[in-house]
Structure formats: structure tokens, C-alpha cells
Design brief:
Elements: E1 6-9, H1 11-16, H2 24-34, E2 41-47, H3 59-64, E3 74-79, H4 82-89, E4 94-102, H5 105-112, H6 116-133, E5 136-142, H7 155-167, E6 172-177, H8 184-197, E7 202-207, H9 214-223, E8 228-231, H10 252-261, H11 270-283
Helix pairs in contact: 2-11, 4-6, 8-9
Length: 286
Amino acid sequence: MLAPIQVVECPRDAMQGWKHQIPTTEKIRYLNQLLKVGFHTLDFGSFVSAKAIPQMADTEEVLSSLDLKGSSTKLLAIIANERGAEKACSFQQIQYLGFPFSVSETFQLRNTNATIETAFQRVKTIQQICSSTGKELVVYLSMGFGNPYGDPWNEAVVFEWAEKLAVQGIKILSLADTIGLASPAQVETMTGYLVEQMAGINIGVHLHADPKDRLHKIEAAYHAGCRRFDGALKGIGGCPMANDDLVGNMDTEWMIRYFQHENDPVSLNENEFKTAIQMAEQIFTS
């Protein structure tokens, strides 16, 4: 029997590169609405440099006003180093920490100011911090389908790093198409390989795509056996550290309908979901 699909809603990814500063009160109101929907996980904020990602400077203030009563949704915060991990782990409300581990040296330096090897050592330390505080570390294999910098890349390199991370006790690995380079064939081949070869590891996908190829990428991951999918309402988002032109996230509403079409529905509160969509339309206006 297949495990239930886990939908990770990523308002943090939608907000972080948004061109206008979103008021803290609006973030709180939106996140509290998303907590009513029934997503598996809410990627709500990040403990990173406010200078690098000013939109996330109020994460701690936002967290203090989230209403988790009656919500089954787990909170995930993005971190980039040990200091951020220690900060995130000090909050009882947070269950998951997410670390962007790039297989591109250039992007690792741009995103976390570290080489790949330094980032790997950070992962080992952060995993220890998580283990000692009852948190779980999610590692994103960013630039997992190639990169625009000319850095060496092939599937074997990605799989090798995935194995090294698993040895450190990481139980959730997410293949990240950071700037939307992946072809559907790549998504299916690479996701399928990891799902098949890494029993006991929850393999997810964090795919970026424009509307014309979202269907094919999500189909590829789903039919490769993936059960964990990141998305954002309205398909807003992308990594501001990777490119000036943000490539959107998978549209969560569209993904939910796709899973229904496959007779593999996700259990959500439809009324609260509709309200969240309406709020997203108000917040993310040009």
C-alpha cells in the first residue's frame, strides 16, 4: 500500500523573493490560514542573514504569533549554518529544519557562503544539533538537475552526495530543480533511482517550473514513486540567490487537483483551502 502523499506548502519560498516587502501582520494572517488547511508541512520562514533575504527578517516575530492549536501541520524553517540551526532548534513549535545543499560549488557559495565540502561539514554538525533537540533535518539537493554556471554536473555526482548525506542519518532528501532546468525525463530517472535505491529515506521533490511544463514534471516525479511534493499557492516563488528571474514553484492548487485525477487524493479542508487561495491572490499582486 502506498504511503499518503505529503504536500509541503512553501510560503517562505513564495515570499522570499517577492518584489514588495510583505507586512508582518499579513504574513501572520496568511500563515495562520494555511495552518487550517491540513498540509503535511508548512515551510514558513528562515533563520538566515536578514541582509541576504530581507523578506525573512521577521521570521521570529511571525513564529511567535502562529496559532498551532488544532493544526496537524508541522513547521519547517530554512537554515544555512550552525548558528541558524541553533536558533531554529530553540523553538519548540518547529519540527523540521531545511538545509539547501548544492551540488554546484558556485551556487553553494552564493547561497550559503560556503564550499560544498564546508556545507557537508555543516550538515553533519546541524544533524547533531537536530538529534539532540528532537528536530528532523531535511536536506535539499539544490541544483540537483544541473546548473547555469558551468560547474561539473552529472547524475552520478548527485547520487553520490545523496548516499553521503544518508550515511549521516538524514531521513528526508528533496531533489531541487532550483531554476527550472530539469527535463521531465531527468525528473523521472533521478527521482525513480533514489526512491528505488534508498529504502527508508523519504525522497521528495522541490521543483521549479513555468506553467507550460509543470504538468510533465509533476507527472514524472509522481510516476517515479515520489510521495513528498513541495509547492506554493499560485505557483509563486524561486530562489533570489540563483537568478534575477524567479522561476515559479509548483502551484499547490494545481498539484492537489492532479493527485485527485490520479485517484490519489490529499485530505485537506476544502473550505479553508479556498480561503487560503483567495488570500494568496490578495497578497501576491503585482
